[in-house]
Amino acid sequence: MTRQSVSLVIPAYNEERHLSACLDAIAAQTQVPLEVIVVDNNSTDRTAQVARAYPFVKVISERRQGRVFARNAGFNAAKGNIIGRIDADIVLPPNWIEYIQAFYTNDRHYKQAWTGGGVFYNVRFPRLVGLGYSLLAFRFNWVLLGHCSLWGSNMALLRSQWQTVAGAVHLRNDIHEDLDLTMHLHSAGYGIVYDSRLKVRAQLRRIHANRHELWGYLLWWPRTLRVHGKKVWIICWFFGVLLLYVMALSLAAADWVARRILGRKPLPTN
């Protein structure tokens, strides 16, 4: 393959606080994407206005509430041969577009979807937390499924791959849409490549703000497996979910100690 065009899709709901940093990092890329699509999913803040302030951004609206609907709208609108997908709180390294284009220059990757890791900037010990998260989200999922899984905050696939599975993905707001997409792609014969070398700066949501949503959100993981008929959902519940829950509470406690006892600066809370 020759160098291919990239459509970068960003689902967004009430992301005015984070979106500027995300789009600034896209503007600083060493290679220019074909298009950047921000999908405004019924935001009640200035998300759409912030996005429209960047001339290279195309804003589309999705009235059906939920990340899966916003993602699908962005993927279906994409014109590039490659669809990149990140979240609105992500800060890309400057070579992200160039790296993804280089990956798909190799013919051997035509049957593969790509995903990378992250360093979390709203928690203490971000690199250590990133390592722990990758062990659970990527390595543990590999043990459960026999293949890697996509992380919606840092992923890419060919538009032709998306078109193959677009009609099959589940339209539910109580499962992980990126894990659901992973399993549909794998069933269609595509591999998933996890590349730890290209990391984005990201937030761990529900660690500080909206912590009451944490347990229910974590249960999306085994539920997604169960929807796909994977009996390992029970193992996921007992090990993956409980470990992530303890990890999240420990991070919140570590931040409290750092701020209240050690006098450290507060970190971003959402």
What does the radius of gyration come to? Answer: 18 Å
Tell the overall outline: globular
Which strand order do you get reading across the main beta sheet?
3-2-1-4-6-5-7
Number of strand elements: 7
CA(first)-CA(last) distance:
40 Å
**Class of secondary structure makeup:** alpha/beta
List keywords for this structure.
270 residues; alpha/beta; seven-stranded mixed β-sheet; 10 helices; 43% helix
Describe the structure.
With 270 residues, this protein is α/β, with parallel strands linked by helices. 43% of the residues lie in helices and 18% in strands. It has helices at 16-27, 47-52, 67-77, 96-103, 126-145, 159-165, 177-187, 214-218, 220-227, 233-260; strands spanning 6-12, 35-40, 57-61, 82-86, 112-120, 154-158, 191-202. The protein has a 7-stranded mixed beta sheet, with helices on both faces. β1, α1 and β2 (35-40) form a beta-alpha-beta unit. It is globular. The mean pLDDT is 88.
Summarize this structure briefly.
This protein has helices at residues 16-27, 47-52, 67-77, 96-103, 126-145, 159-165, 177-187, 214-218, 220-227, 233-260, and strands at residues 6-12, 35-40, 57-61, 82-86, 112-120, 154-158, 191-202. With 270 residues, it is α/β, with parallel strands linked by helices.
List the helices and strands and how they pair.
Elements: E1 6-12, H1 16-27, E2 35-40, H2 47-52, E3 57-61, H3 67-77, E4 82-86, H4 96-103, E5 112-120, H5 126-145, E6 154-158, H6 159-165, H7 177-187, E7 191-202, H8 214-218, H9 220-227, H10 233-260
Parallel strand pairs: 1-2, 1-4, 2-3, 5-7
Antiparallel strand pairs: 4-6, 5-6
